[in-house]
Amino acid sequence: MMNFEELKKIAHDTRTEVLEMCIKAGTGHVTSSMSSVEVLISLYFGGLVNVKPEEPKWAGRDRVIISKGQCSPLIYSVLSRKGFFPKDWLNGFAQKGGHFGVHLQNSVPGVELTTGALGHGLGVATGVALAAKMNRDLHMVYCLLGDGELYEGSIWESAMFAAHNQLNNLVVIVDRNFLATTDFTENMMALEPLDKKFEAFGFNAITVDGHNIESLINSMAGLRNRKSRKPTVIIAETTKGAGIPSLSHNPVMHGVPPKGTQEINQARKDLAKGSI
Ligand SMILES: [Mg+2]
């Protein structure tokens, strides 16, 4: 495994790549991608997820289901860095003739499920986790949710199902950036106390700083083959637009890249400072 400084460097390079992909395409969910960077880097480069990029459908792979499919530029950047497909595919992000559009597509090597319409990923993840139990397969199932996505009733049906079926091979990660599409979650319909809600649904709930790679890895490293029968939720507290202050904490910046010379230059300058 790489050390934490190396992982932080990868996180920064990934942010830069995602921003440039979206600027070039003139579209893409920049802020939603930025909030999940450390989660994805921890999973794929921090020794948590077991995959074979040269054999994307390897039966023993851990399944990573990205339910918040709008953060596709981030996922594509991470999967290409991991070696699932050539880097130059990223140049065609959301462009005619390219390999992928704005939302996540399972036609791309390494992507398990086409997502973007919210609320579906966890239902699929619980089914995949139950199938693994029935087959006595040892792989883990990770599912990344947005916090705005928690307004979908299907999420809570899936959560009940996961606990009832004792899916301790399931790790749900909530990107808790406190923003949904148009406003702050606690203004729209309060989610807090979120850990208590998941606990009431039968989960092992762990809250971590979602931009601290060391904390993220430590919170998830011991979850494989553990004795408790409970599924786990990692509530990763994040900032929407993390790394780019000029785009952060701002509901207006949902789903759009910076536009115009001034906004673009400011975003690049922010990111170059390298602090989150
Ligand atoms: Mg959110």
What's a quick, concise take on this entry?
With 276 residues, the protein is of the alpha/beta class. The protein has ten helices and five strands.
Topology, element by element:
Blueprint: H1 4-25, H2 30-35, H3 37-45, E1 63-66, H4 72-82, H5 121-134, E2 141-146, H6 153-164, E3 170-176, H7 185-188, H8 194-200, E4 204-209, H9 213-220, E5 232-237, H10 260-273
Parallel strand pairs: 1-2, 2-3, 3-5, 4-5
Helix pairs in contact: 1-3, 1-4, 1-10, 3-4, 3-9, 5-6
Magnesium ion binds next to loops.
Secondary-structure-derived class = alpha/beta
- Percent strand equals 5-15%
- Main sheet? 5 strands, parallel
Give me the CATH fold name. Rossmann fold
Question: How many β strands by DSSP?
Answer: 5
Ligand species: magnesium ion
- Summed up, the domain count is 1
Low-confidence stretches: none
Mean pLDDT: 96
- The general outline is globular
CA-based gyration radius: 18 Å
Strand order of the largest sheet: 1-2-3-5-4
Order of helices and strands: HHHEHHEHEHHEHEH
Please bin the fraction of helical residues.
25-40%
At the fourth CATH level, what is the homologous superfamily? Thiamin diphosphate (ThDP)-binding fold, Pyr/PP domains
The level-1 CATH class: Alpha Beta
Gross CATH architecture: 3-Layer(aba) Sandwich
